[in-house]
Sequence to fold (706 residues):
Amino acid sequence: MMFAGPATILFCAVVVVPFIYGLYLTLTSWDGIANNKPFVGLQNYRDAFADTAYWSALGRTAIYSVISVVLVNVVAFFLAYLVTSGIKGQNFFRAGFFIPNLIGGIVLGYVWKFVFNRAFVAIGTALTGHEGASLLGTTNGALFALILVSVWQYAGYMMLIYVAGFMGVDDSLKEAALIDGCTNGQAMRNVVIPLMRSSFVQCIFLSTTRCFMVYDLNLSLTKGEPFNTSVMAAMHVYNKAFVYKNYGVGQAEALILFIICAVIGMIQVYVGKKGEVEA
Amino acid sequence: MLKDWKRWTAAAAATVLAVGMLGACGSNSGSGDGTKITIFNSKSEIQQQLEELAESYGESHGVDVEVYYSSDTVAAHMATKYAANQPYTISMVDAKDVYSLGAEHAIDLSGEKWVSETDQAISVDGKVLGFPVSVEARGLIYNADAIKKATGKDFKPESIKTTDDFKNLISDLKAGGMESPVGVMKEDWSLAAHYLPQVYEEQEDPAAFIKSLHDGADLNSNARWTSLMDTFDVLVENNYAKGDKAISAEREVTEQKLAKGEIAFMFGGNWDWAVLNQYEPTKNMGMMPVPQNDNDMDVQNKLVGGGSKYFFIDNSKNTSEAQQKAAKDFLNWLSMDKEGQEWIVNTAHLVSPFKNNTLEVADPLGKSVKEFADKNMLINNYNYLPDDHYSVLGANFQKYLAGQEDRAALAGQVVDYWKSNDMKTIQ
Fold:
């Protein structure tokens, strides 16, 4: 009680109670502001399952997440390898790659919006001679832009975790493998990477959950445009609950999103941990 | 021993955090002697003026006035404040919000003196709940200097009535060297909350018309739709950004081009002056009705608009009677007092919805709107559209703007939207 009490009470107050209250709200047709909250049973869940815009937003989020997670981790691992391999000025590079992560998603979105709409268009005009359209004006272009910026933002952060992973692998193990006749690639594949498994588990977990819940970047970079084809799941839920004043349905959709995220996260951590090895 | 020490430190730290957090939640009590009222502002362009007003009004009237602004959707922001039991004394909201919130959250203002001075106040169930802040109207914004430069003739907006007149003027402008004389805003609210609703508003009975769409009427053969979309096609054909580019055109760029005279026309409203004004525009601008071939309801001579942004006063127990009184006094001052009227017109640059406010509007777009309003040449806003209308149909309208679908498809989507709508808001 002494030790965990305050934290438990706080956790209940800011997580458990709101969560249960939120569950209750999914059973009402509340508009988000009226005093009475009419009870409607499971109607909101039926509406959520029938909401095609929600499911296409979820599908889009899945595509965005899969591509982003793969790219973020590949890039981050590669960067981590570079900045631990003893190149000149590696501390400077570490700081440099990490900096995008210090800029908030909203600011980052506006900066990149400028880059896509003005800088890239200007470069394109200079190269081809006629004025092209911005990537943000096309359906695939907007998704590509979101992925590009996410990778740019998160790779530096994940890189730090991989750097820690690399440093945690004792050099003597790698050296022993090399002496035993492994090539560099084999040593990496069979010795270093298995020992870094916990870094991979962490990074993939963090990047998956972050990508699935993306909102700030989505809002400032594309705002769902063009044609509402870049609306991600979190933005759809927000709009449903607060902008279209369908609080109950929005809350039900948020719960579905939460369950999907939790299941994916748990499966992935379970599978990842199971194969972990110790040196 | 060492372990004990660590444990105590951790417990102490956790307690400090907990107390700190709880403390942070409960620090909004305390209302001293002077009455304190809060005002929520949802018009970003007048935030600074309102803050200055709060200070000077507070000093001269002995009340403490605080002004807040949020860039959130108004309804979403209201929802969070009411959920937290911290409503503002006076909230500035859109007309539709007065209809949806007013009955439950607003006090009755029927007995106020200003009620008889305006046609724009909002009543629900016979009670006046919404105080109109300003009049705003939609139409075609023109840059007369740019037109004169290209055609060599003075521009007379009343000479352009039909889509064909407009087409002729466009070709004159092109002949005079202006390559694309139009800018079209791609924002979903501009397309589906400002342009598309004209199709409903310019019917004899908008609600009945929407109900007919709900029942599956053929929109694409409707005369008003055809008339407005014919004009929209002319706008799109002459837009400086075409196809995919139309969809990434930024509002600021479009308005800058209009202010500089690179383009001559843009569909918008008098609120656009706040943006245009940043780019040193000519004063020779104004607003005219959207040219149309179908002149039913005299639409060729009227702008669409009316009261925009409404104040309502909170009726909950969080707002004391003294605060409600102070809030009423403030609204009275804004509408009836010479100083308040001055502030509306000359400081906030709004078009007053009150007949007793005869001050001249300084900005050219507002001036146009005031002229139409004074002549009673405004077609009323239809304020009952569902909240997702602008977003869902805005996305479809953007496809039309980008040339990815044709008019029949867009008409079908509008009808489908209404078919699946529960029609709860329509009245």
